[in-house]
Design a protein that fits this description.
With 111 residues, the chain is an alpha+beta fold. It is built from five helices and two strands. The protein has a single domain, classed as Orthogonal Bundle (434 Repressor (Amino-terminal Domain)), CATH 1.10.260.40. A hairpin with a 4-residue loop joins β1 and β2. α3 packs across α4 and α3 packs across α5. Pfam families: HTH_31.
Length: 111
């Protein structure tokens, strides 16, 4: 069996909940959300042409904290989410449902 077939079979098995506990599914959902948020921060920062240090300065954080956020190693609090949104000159949109998480920074328009 080649790799692509093995991968498809593995995904089908996981999708069918073979041996995966509710706790494991919840952990996977948390990881997906952290990764989606990390990617949204990274993408918006790159869109603005900013370094991690630039974002850190704008948000009143350290560069190391921004790095941990982009690496999905930090769980942001609500005040931190607000500070990041302001630093990235955007609104933060988070949509959560049973099967999918979506995180996006939406650029603010000039008023």
């Amino acid at each position: 069996m080649n790799h692509s077939r093995w991968k498809l079979k593995r995904e089908q098995e996981l999708g069918a909940d073979h041996g995966e506990s509710e706790e494991t599914r919840a952990e996977r959902a948390e990881i997906r959300l952290a990764m989606a948020f990390a990617k949204a921060v990274y993408d918006r920062r790159k869109e603005l042409g900013l370094s991690q240090s630039d974002v850190a300065e704008r948000a009143g954080l350290t560069q190391a904290k921004v790095s941990r956020i982009e690496g999905a190693d930090a769980v942001p609090t609500l005040p931190l989410l607000r500070r990041l949104a302001r630093a990235l000159d955007a609104s933060l949109s988070i949509a959560l449902d049973e099967d999918q998480e979506k995180v996006a920074f939406v650029a603010r328009t000039a008023a």
